[in-house]
Hints:
Elements: E1 3-7, H1 12-23, E2 27-34, H2 52-58, E3 61-66, H3 68-76, H4 89-107, E4 111-113, H5 129-136, E5 143-144, H6 156-159, H7 177-186, H8 203-215, H9 221-226, E6 231-236, E7 239-243, H10 247-256, E8 262-266, E9 274-278, H11 282-294, E10 304-310, E11 313-319, H12 324-330
Parallel strand pairs: 1-2, 1-4, 2-3, 4-5
Antiparallel strand pairs: 6-7, 7-9, 8-9, 8-10, 10-11
Amino acid sequence: MPKAIALYSGGLDSTLAILVAKRQGIEVTAITCLTHFGCDISDKSSCSKNPFAASEKFGFEVKLCHLADKFIEIVKNPKFGHGRNMNPCIDCRILMLKEAKEFMRMTGAEFIITGEVLGQRPMSQRKDTFPRIDRESGLEGYVLRPLSAKLLKPTIPEQMGIVDREKLYDFHGRSRKQQMKLAEEFGLTEYPAPAGGCLLTDPIYAYRLKELLRHNPSPSLKDINLLRVGRHFRISNNCKIVVGRDENENNTIQSLVENTDYLLSVNGFGSPLTIICGDASDEAIKLAAAICARYSDAKKLPVVEVSVLGNGEEFKIQANPRVDNIVDSLRIQPFKEVIA
């Protein structure tokens, strides 16, 4: 039985690509690539879907592959540039294919499958981009895109007769009508809505990441994870304040706090958790206390008592929550009018 490795997100297109190949008697092992920027199964980002549900139903194996620091480096310096925000889509695809190539070598598979559809994404899914991606990954001729294969040059597995080209498809564009019809044919009834892309395509997240990298070219995993939540305020080159917006974000901040951080809250009132990251001076702590009070349910009081935990001690500080002008000027926000 011929073997293939599939890049698998858990979404409709990548699932269908695998099912099309399996229908031709190809043994498929899927790999799901994880990153620090939301394209994984550990959070609620737009492209994070559980990859195991369909694999269990249709009988294919899924392996997880974390791209880790390799991916962070291409986010900072992509050879083929960023998309509209911080998304290095072409470099990302090349990296994923290189990882899949290693799986192919280790397992004795003959080629690689992806669920890419011609014209679906403006940067990485174009007719002139596919060959470049394949060449850069060292896989020219060995990447089969079953959903759009009839619109593309025949691959080596097609030329060798391992794959029947007549049983592949000519899908193109952003409409999912053809995919939905094919899903019904396979009995694939549960699949996620189309994803808008990873967090790097989100303009607010991308702005925060650019700002972080300007001040810290080698951010920690905690710094990166904090970008997902809260209101962010830049106090100095090496000090930032993050304020939770709801209970879930408070819980996230609580889970990320380290011994070197300060954590603030207003006791006796509904309050955000507020974290100070970096070198926290006395003035920074006072300012963080005022910002914490500003977003608490005690914000209408003239003076608010704020609890501060950090540096091995716990103490209280009196803060004035009326700091709207300061909040506006320090907020890390691409659209300054959005202050809520």
